[in-house]
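Z., the sequence and structure:
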Amino acid sequence: MKYILSLLLFSIAKLTFAQTILPDFLQGIWKVENQEIYEHWDKLNENTLKGFSYKIIDGQMIIKEYLDISKRKSKIIYTATVLNQNDGKGIEFKLIQADSLFIFENQKHDFPKKIIYKKLSNTEVFVQISDGKQKEFTYKLQKQTQQADTTVSNPNYDKELAAKLGADDYGMKSYFLIILKSGTNITADKELIQSSFRGHLDNISRLVDEGKIVVAGPLGKNEEKYRGIFILNNMANEDEAKELLKTDPAIKNGLLDYEIYSWYGSAALSEYLHFSDKIWKLKP
């Protein structure tokens, strides 16, 4: 009986561990067999794979969707953000199996409900997109040899700067876009309001100095009643970004709330900060 129980606990532990493994084999550029469609994946850190899929049309790259596979505590989440769909919000799929197959599932989504990656070799991956029943399509990804292409290579490329900024081959990286909006606290306590928003501005300055905020500012009057934006830098995952936002007194006190989105932009974004510190006369 003890042996059976130990075996069962070992199996559960093994399954839990397997479901927190990233499919690192996806790193690189992959081409859909017999089509000009590609997936490009980079490993940002031990917790995150960042990718995007694109087409090549008349020699131009047309991005279709942004992809993300991230560890969130004891879970692995695959997020697909398709351009011009779902109001720019990503659809999340939870990893439910990670052995010979990496299976990501979201039973609440219409289609797909399952996304499966299976490594066939170091240069070939099988992909299945399905509703878990009859509707599905499959294809193979073939790894591309990354060779210098003189038609697109950049003579100004600075390898050390790219590495310092965390840039991928396209000079891009992953951020989190925060849209600030009015919170649920409608207090009239002027002292609380004043101290919270003073702390809000001081906290922004601190996070800029720490390299964790690269863009911050208020929005003009709008129908959605959005108040402002942050762009967070060097966040391992969404959970870390949310923990960081808790350090803002206005958010902590419920005077501000937020929406959070993954965003893929130029890795050079933070470089403007050096100049921004030279052009202000009055501190807000």
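Confidence is low (pLDDT under 50) at residues 2-17, 147-151. The chain has two domains: 19-144, 172-276.

Let me know what you think.
H.
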